[in-house]
Amino acid sequence: MTEKCIKTLKQAIRDYLQWMASEGYTPTTCQAHKWALNRFLLFISQEDIAWDEIFTLHTLKAFQQESNLKQVPGLRGLSQYLFEQKKISRPIKRRSYPLPPIYEEYIFYLEKSREVAQGQVVNIRRLLFAFNHFLEILDVNLPNMKIVHIDAFLAEFTANFSPGTCRVCRSFLRGFLRYLYYERKILEKDLAPLVVGAPLFAQARPPKFLRPQELQQFFSNLKLTTPTHVRTYAMVHLAYYMGLRPKEIGKIKLDDISFKKKELTLRERKGNNPMILPVPDNTIKTIAAYVSIARPESKCEYLFLSFDAPYGPINPGTVTGYISKAIKQSGILSPPYSLRHTYAQNLLNTGATLFEIKEMLGHESIQSTKRYISIDLELMRKVLFDEEI
C-alpha cells in the first residue's frame, strides 16, 4: 500500500477519534476504538490493498481472521464516518440475516408498533436468525417448541457471553415469545415467563441512586461556561427532575415544549406510551437558557442539536455520554441512569403510589417500576420508631 494511503488512513482515524470525543462517547469506548483501529492500520500497512477496497466486508473479515477479533465496532464506525464525510463511496456492508415470514413480521412489528431503535433491531434480528437455525437443525417448528428447546439454544448461543449480554439475549427472546402467544396465537402457552434468567438477574441488582449530599456535589460541579456545558445542564435537568430516558431527551422537539404552560409533550416514549408532563420551574428555565444562548441556529425541529454542521439531532448515546461525563467530573461513581432512579425514589418519598410512579416513568409493567425503587431506610425509621434523622 502506498505511503500516501497510509497517511490518509492514519489521519482519518485521528479525525474519527476526535469526532467521537466531541460527540460525548465515553473514554473507555474511545480507547477501545483507538486500540482496534491502530491494529487495523498496522494490518492495512502490511497488505497491498487499494483505498477503495479498505472499507469492504472482505477486508473486514480478513482483518478479523488475522487479528482473531470477533467484533471490530470501531472499523464500521470509521467507515460510516468517512462515508458521511464523502471520503469513501460506501460504508462497510453489514451481514444480512434473512428470516422466515413470521420472524420478519415480528421485526416489522417492533419497528412500527413498538418504535424500537434500529440498532437494537439489528441485534434482535441476529439473535432470531441463530434461533431459527437452531430450531431447523432440531426439526422443531414454532407451534411445537418447548422451553427445553429455548434453554438449549440459550445455553449454546450465550456460552461465551458476559452475564449482561446473556440478560439482553433472554430479554430479546422473551419479547418474541410474547408476540407469538399474544399477538399471533401460535403458541398454546406463554413461554416468556419461563425464560427466568433475565428477570432473576435484573432483580438481583439493586438500583443506584444519588444521596442528597451526592446531588449537592453533582449540581455544584456542573459548569455553564460553554454551549456544550449549557446543553448538558439542560439534559441533566430533564433526566433528574423529570426522570426522562436518554432516548426521550434526544427525541424532544421544539414544538413539544410549552414554555407558557410549563408542559412537555413526550410523543416518542418506550412502549408507545405518549403523555404530557409538567415541567418544574428550574427545568423550564434551563431549557430556555439553552435555546436562547447555546442552541445552534438551525431549521431542525429537534431541541438538542450537535455543535457540528449541519447541526442535526443528537442520538441517545450522545445524551448518555455527556451526562456520564458530568457525573464523573463531579467525583461521583454512578451511572447516568442513577438520575432516573433518584427521580423515582424522590417520587416514593413524597408519597406517590407505585402506580403513579409507573405512569410518570412511562413503564409498561409495574415489575419494571419495582426494580427502580429501593427501601428508604430513613423513611422506614420514621414510620417504625417515629424518629427524625
Task: Give descriptors for this structure.
single chain, 389 residues, mainly alpha, hpI Integrase, Chain A, three-stranded antiparallel β-sheet, 19 helices, globular
Task: Tell me about this structure.
The structure is a single chain. By secondary structure, this protein is mainly α. The chain folds into three domains: 3-84; 101-203, DNA polymerase, domain 1; 212-377, Orthogonal Bundle (hpI Integrase, Chain A), CATH 1.10.443. Helix content is 59%, strand content 3%. A three-stranded antiparallel sheet has the order 1-2-3, with no helix packed on it. A hairpin with a 4-residue loop joins strand 1 and strand 2 (263-266). Helix 1 packs antiparallel against helix 2 (27-45). The model is unreliable at 198-204 (pLDDT under 50).
Helix fraction? 55-70%
Tell me the strand percentage band.
Answer: under 5%
CATH topology of the largest domain: hpI Integrase, Chain A
Count the beta strands.
Answer: 3
Instruction: Please outline the major beta sheet.
Output: 3 strands, antiparallel
Task: Report the CATH superfamily of the largest domain.
Answer: Intergrase catalytic core
The top-level CATH class of the largest domain is: Mainly Alpha
CATH architecture label name of the largest domain: Orthogonal Bundle
Total domains: 3
Euclidean distance between termini CA atoms: 71 Å
Report the structural category.
mainly alpha
The pLDDT mean sits at 85
Unreliably modeled segments: 198-204
Q: Overall 3D geometry?
A: globular
Number of helices: 19
The H-and-E topology, N to C, reads as HHHHHHHHHHHHHEEEHHHHHH
Strand order in the largest sheet: 1-2-3
CA radius of gyration: 24 Å
